[in-house]
Amino acid sequence: MAGEAQDSNWPLPKFYFKVNLGSSIEVYFQEVSGVEVKAQPLEYQHGNSPVFSAINMPGTVKNNTVTLIKGVFAKDNKFWDWYNKIKMNTVERQNVFITLCDEEGNPTMVWTLLNAWPTKIVFSDLESYTNEVAVETIEIFHEGLMIENG
Length: 150
What we know:
Blueprint: E1 17-21, E2 25-27, E3 31-33, E4 37-44, E5 55-63, E6 66-71, H1 78-83, E7 94-101, E8 107-123, E9 135-141, E10 144-149
Antiparallel strand pairs: 1-2, 1-7, 3-6, 4-5, 6-9, 7-8, 8-9, 8-10
């Protein structure tokens, strides 16, 4: 039958994922965004170039701030406890593992944010006229990104 060889090769759905703060704290999130890394372009022109235009080279790597959003639960202060450890010139850095899972819950891709620390926490707006779930947002900065496949 046509297409049988490619039936097992489908893009992964993005809704089944897990996040570990550090090595042991698993937190369930509604949304993870901003996992990206970018090499800043560096314009360079050497003195004996036969071409009268600059060339572009990769410069320093810029890591993006990652945003994590989750529901608010009673007696759950994981974000605040981590954020509250920030003192003048000191912070508790942790590796953060974002794992995309298959249908059975097995890891298919893992993004590791190296030496991450919280930069911002946003608590949900409180409105008496809606029936929405309260959410909190944490923004974390990291010093590098590693990607592992299955």
